[in-house]
Every structure is written in structure tokens, then in C-alpha cells.
Amino acid sequence: MQQTVDFQNRSHNALGDPQIRKNFRSAMDGLIQKRRQAFPEREALEQLRWKGEKIKANALSKLPALLAQLEENCVKNGIQVHWAETVEEANHIVLDIMNRHDAKQLIKGKSMVSEEMDLNHFLEQHGIECLESDLGEFIIQLINEKPSHIIAPAIHMNRLQVAKLFNEKFPEIPYTDDVDTMTRNARDILRRKFYEAPVGLSGVNFAVAETGTLCLVENEGNGRMCATVPQVHIAVTGIEKVVEKLSDIPTLLRLLTRSATGQPITTYFNMINAPRQSGEKDGPKEVHLVLLDNGRSRIFQDAELISTLRCIRCGACMNNCPVYARIGGHAYGTTIPGPIGSILEPQKSGLDELGDLPTASTLCGACAEVCPVRIPIPKLLNRLRFEKNRTDETGSVKGAGSGREWKEATLWKLWQILHATPPLYRIGVKIITRLRGLMPTQLGPWTSVRKAPRIAKKSLHELAQEEGFDHE
Predict the structure, then answer these.
(1) Residues 289 and 346: beta-carbon distance below 8 Å
(2) Which of 280, 345, 444, 453 is deepest in the core (most CB within 10 A)?
(3) pLDDT at 188
(4) What is the CATH number for 196?
(5) In terms of C-beta distances under 8 Å and separation of at least 24 residues, what long-range contacts does 281-287 make, across chains too?
């Protein structure tokens, strides 16, 4: 219940903050327009989406075999592979690697899985300094916040807010609210750290089973530096990021970049195959791949919910969601917010913890219309709503049935009996119409934004009988 209360409070606070709403509306409108321009031909877009869906669905249908193939080929290439069932295991794997190299500094590229692991906090508890090198991640790290968007972590802040933050944190640097100058200042601060940190960490956008290749998509170059400048590179990713063939990547890359930022391709596309080889002058001496489960195997086992794992983390569903655009990512209180987060996070953490998120939707279908791999998000939201309120606890989703209350179950049972028994129904209608004045005006959340329904003085049957119609 605490998670539910927190979500409601965060949503209420966000709706009451005009600056947040203005920032998100401006950002979302810009991203929506860029995506439209990137896909001018509707028919070509749909063909590409069908192809992307097929690629991801094929990979998921062979997931265990592809993961084994990925490990085999990564090991052949010299990449050390680690398996983690939980975030706790993944965190300790990273910590062990750091300790083996006596490393006290970690420079990080953008990684939503590391956010899922809460890796920064974990390592800092063990005396290790973590520094985010992605500009958006660097900004929110300065104010100790979580990303509010999976593509643009600091999208909830405008230019002037960032300028004020930089001036507070780095008073030795002259104040400026020029975006290019602030970017250069941040780059100067971060680049010094690249040469000091012995270990770098990044995420993985796609892991190719056929070749043991780790693909990393980015715009700033910080991910590439994290993967090449330090002597040790650690890549962390969810097990669902594996694809079968290298030839699958161009389609997914086109869909990802154009859906996310409207770009034909990002500035950098990194393909990591191995650590530094003999005779090479740069690159890490060690490369580690950490494959995280954290509930994904449970999702994989459900024939319908498995489509959740097709997500390529473009953020298009968030950009087009009328709910997300008004409350922002922090209101959800999860690593992945928005529509995709409302189906993914409750499945990982349990409906007893995050069962309110599937209800944070109008079911307008905008998310499904723009999803590059055609995830039926509204359908899955409805499925999770059912799982939360099902009459038994036999569902495949963690926390199934946790939202079912005995009072509600009793009322629906009485409703069923009443409508299945005509004599009882007629008696019940007469009682309700005669005692309509006792109808409460407050009916929980329903009447927080609506008026309570008014019961008529007479039933339809009674009105028909008065007009001479036989209602039997």
C-alpha cells in the first residue's frame, strides 16, 4: 500500500508543479515532431516495425539457446561472461571485479540496468567513487535524482535550471546558461576523470549471439571512452537484449534511433568484440559482460507477457503518452517509467509492490501505435490489471491477486447473485429506488473527480408498466 500512496502523492505533486509540466510538454512535443519527420512514409514505417517485431520475437523464442551461444562466442573472443539472477548478485560481481584491480574509481556510461541495480549507491557504500559521464546522467547525479526518461535522463529540467545547478556545484566556473558552453564545461570536468578511473562501465543496446558482439548506441562519445580508455571495461545488460544475427542490427538500429530522437543514426555506434589484442594501441585489457535476470525469466515463461521483453528502450511510448507527459518519470518511482515501465516494473517487482502502475493509463493506445517493435502495451496493461484483482493467486505474475479485497469480492458476488435471480433483482431494485436518498456522495477515488451517480425514482420496468407495456 505504501507504494500506491507514494505514487499518488508524487503524481499529485507533479501535476501541481507548472514548471515540470511546461518542461515535459515542450520536450515531448519536440521529440514527437522529430519522430514524425524521421518516418515520413507510413507504409515503410509499418514494414520496418513488422520486421523489428519479428527479429525480437524470434530472439525471445530462442532465448536460452541464444544466451548460451552468446556466452560461447564472447568467451572465444576473450570477453569474460558473468550471470546474475538478482541485482544483489550483479552488484557483487561488479564489486569483485573492482576489488581484484584495487580500483576505487568507476567511470560510467549511460546504463539503465546499472540504475536498476542501484549500482552507484552500492559501490559508494564500499568506498568506490562512481561518476556518470553521460551529460544527462551527470546532471541528475549532481542533484541525487534518478533518470526521469530512459533516453534523456534530465529532460524534466530546463536550460536555466541546469545553469543554476552548475553554478552551485562548480562556483569556480563562470556562470553561463548557454547550452554549448555548459556542455563544454561538463566535458572538461568529466574528461579528466577518464584518465584517472581504472575501470569503465557501460550498458548494452544489443548483444549479438552469432558473433559475441556487444553493441552500444550513443551520441556523446562518453560510452566509447568508458569502453576504451580504462584498462577494464564492464558491460551490464538484461538477458533480453540478445539478438540472433549481426544482420538483425541495422533494422533495430534504424528503429531505435529514429523512434528515440528522430536521428537517422546516432553519432557513435560501438561494436565491442574483444579486449585489446596484441599489437593494438588502445582498448581495455579486460572486458566483462554481466547478464542480469532479475525477474525476466519469469516474464519469459508467460506466452502473452513475453512481448514485454521485446522493448529496445527507445522511449517513444513515453514521449506520446498523455499521462507521462503530465506527471513525468519521477512520479512512477521506478527505474523505467511511462507505459513500458507500467508493464515491465510490476512484473519484475510484483503487483503487490507496483500494482498501481498499470492503472496509470487512459488506454488510449498511443504507446502501441508508436512502439517500434509493436508491443501491445494497452493489452498487457489490462492483463496486469486482471492479474492484480484476480480471485485466486495462481497467476504467473508475481503478486497476482494482491489487489483483491474481500469487501469488493463480496459486493461483486452479491451483484452476480442478484442479476442471476429475477425475483431478488426486482426486490432489490425496489429497495434501492425507494432508499435512493441514502446513497453516499463519496465513493472513494471515483468521486474525487466525478459526482456520485443519482438513482432514479422508478426503475425502467416500473415506468414501462405505467405506460401500459408488459415488462414481464
Answers:
(1) no
(2) 345
(3) 87
(4) 3.40.50.10420
(5) 282/228, 282/229, 283/228, 284/200, 284/227, 284/228, 284/230, 284/231, 284/232, 284/233, 285/231, 285/232, 286/80, 286/231, 286/232, 286/233, 287/78, 287/79, 287/80, 287/232, 287/233, 287/235
Q: Looking at the predicted structure, is the pLDDT value of residue 418 above 80?
A: yes
Whole-angstrom distance, CA of residue 287 vs CA of residue 273 = 9
Alpha-carbon span 330 to 118, nearest angstrom: 15
Do residues 346 and 430 share a domain?
Answer: no
Bridge partners for 240 per DSSP: none
What residues make up the domain containing 82?
62-294
**129-153: per-residue pLDDT in tens?**
999 999 999 999 999 999 999 999 9
Note the pLDDT tens digit of each residue in 232-287: 999 999 999 999 999 999 999 999 999 999 999 999 999 999 999 998 888 999 99
Residue whose C-alpha is closest to residue 202's, from 149, 137, 251, 265: 137
3-state secondary structure of 43: helix
d(CA 424, CA 430): 10
Question: Of 382, 404, 426, which closes a domain?
Answer: 404
Residue at 274 is within a domain: yes
CA distance 126 to 190: 22
d(CA 95, CA 106): 10
Torsion of CA 422, 423, 429, 434, to 10 degrees: 170
147 plus 33 within the same structural domain:
no
Please, are residues 109 and 201 in contact by the beta-carbon 8 Å criterion?
yes
As a residue count, the chain comes to 472
Q: Is residue 379 classed as helix, strand or coil in its secondary structure?
A: helix
Contact 224, 278 (CB under 8 A): no
Distance CA 415, CA 156 (A): 46
Q: Which amino acid is located at 439 in the chain?
A: M
Same domain membership, residue 26 and residue 72: no
Rg of the chain taking only CA atoms, in angstroms: 26
